[in-house]
Design a protein that fits this description.
- The structure is a single chain.
- The protein is an alpha+beta fold.
- The protein has a domain at about 40-70.
- It has helices spanning about 15-25, 30-35; strands spanning about 40-45, 50, 60-65, 75.
- It has two helices and four strands; from the N terminus they run ααββββ.
Length: about 80
Amino acid sequence: MPASSWITRPETADDISAVRNINLAAFGTAEEADLEGGSGFTRASLHGIRLSIDVPDEVLLALVSMAGLTPPSGAVRYAPPFGI
């Protein structure tokens, strides 16, 4: 179905529950599934990480896994088959 003909509807409580169950099955812990504020993710732009395409700043995140570690910076480039 082309995206232009996709019909959406308001989210229901059942939708929220179903998505949470999928996330709980996909991630090792409930905290990872919830991605709550204390998850450690920050905006990638704060670390000099960017994409080669325009996306809102809040959707590209970085996780510094070790305190004091400086993550690499630069542009994320996708392989040609992705068409980006």
